[in-house]
Amino acid sequence: VFQKWVNREISNFDYLIQLNTMAGRTYNDLAQYPVFPWILQDYTSEELDLNNPAVFRDLSKPIGVVNEKNAKTVKEKYISFFRYENFEDPLGMIDKFHYGTHYSNAAGVMHYLIRVEPFTTLHIQLQSGRFDCADRQFHSIPATWQALMDNPNDVKELIPEFFYFPEFLENQNGFNLGQLQMSKEVVNDVVLPKWAHSPEDFIYKHRKALESEYVSAHLHEWIDLIFGYKQRGPAAVEALNVFY
What we know:
It is a single chain. This protein has one domain (1-239): Neurobeachin, Chain: A, domain 1 (Orthogonal Bundle). It contains ten helices and no strands. It has helices spanning 2-6, 12-22, 68-79, 81-85, 106-112, 119-126, 141-150, 199-210, 213-226, 233-238. The chain is globular, with a radius of gyration of 18 Å. InterPro entries: BEACH_dom (IPR000409), BEACH_dom_sf (IPR036372), BEACH_Domain (IPR050865).
């Protein structure tokens, strides 16, 4: 599979799906759901220029430190993480870490897929029988990216649906998802970047970005973090990539 990918006989999307499968990730387990990278960092331009390297996320860095400002906080937490996390660990059994949450977990999958069943029902069960408050829901792609940039504790990567399934961006079932506290805006369909004119257009351009020359040249850097040698040990520490 690796050789086929290197020879460009299979797409980046297909290679990532196969890597997830080989790593034991599956659509049948929300705790081990397939994980895909955030690949863009431009969610505000009117047009998306895939020939401009500046529109892409730095795939060599974990999502928590793509914003350089967060790196200092993350390093400090690792050095004195008991103080930061208020961890009770009298036996000294817990290894140090940069991030107390994970780039892929069941709650994160439900967060993204809240508008489609069975994930709607699962989300409601998780939230003790009701929808979570609107401000914490997945309501806007640009706002989700901005939150990642502002908060080093938010380290959610993407799910494969961002590259092929426009329906998850629409509230086709008409769920009452509440309204945002500050703007009083009603949460309905997911707010898209300006360069996307519809959910289908977003998926088309996002998939095109995944298969772009830039991503093809740098995707291995992200794979090293998630599936490769930078997951554990000194390489993970150096890459600011140690998870609880």
